[in-house]
């Protein structure tokens, strides 16, 4: 997958959060050596959460991060949001390149400028979503991550307003949408657990 990577510095920074068990959730306290939490979570999300949720994308994205194999469900949500942040950051660089050196028509350039604003806002929103999630304000995290998903959709739809214009950001928008969907599904699961 293009534009999805995770720096070793970020992994070190998040390691504490990712491997710390949380006693309030039975899913998160399962032994990672006996149950593949990534596979189980992706499968549950694909079967029960959303028709747009991609099991294959979920597995390939999360399993590419080594710490996902030793984390809990909270950690998987953070990984999803961190990957979304990485995707948004890389997409901003791509947009700036296309605006500077691309040979697109005026309509596409205006759409790209709109996408740049959407992605810049998405960066701040993702960070706010992570902060809300870490403090267990799941409803706030849900709103923030949903807004990021909407940004990717709005960006993609901006190119469809003119016949014959193809979005140069289809892959990036899809990736951000799916990464946000991973986090949203887990936030939803944790919200249900809190309500019980």
UniProtKB/TrEMBL annotation:
Q: Which keywords does UniProt give here?
A: Disulfide bond, Signal
**Residue span(s) of domain Pectinesterase inhibitor:** 33-186
> May I ask which residue range the UniProt record assigns to the signal sequence?
1-26
Give GO cellular component annotations, separated by semicolons: extracellular region; plant-type cell wall
In Gene Ontology terms, what is a biological process of this protein?
plant-type cell wall modification
Q: Name one Pfam family in it.
A: PMEI
Task: Recall the GO molecular function terms of this protein's record.
Answer: enzyme inhibitor activity
Give the record's family classification.
Answer: Belongs to the PMEI family.
Q: What is this protein called?
A: Pectinesterase inhibitor domain-containing protein
Q: Which organism is it from?
A: Populus trichocarpa
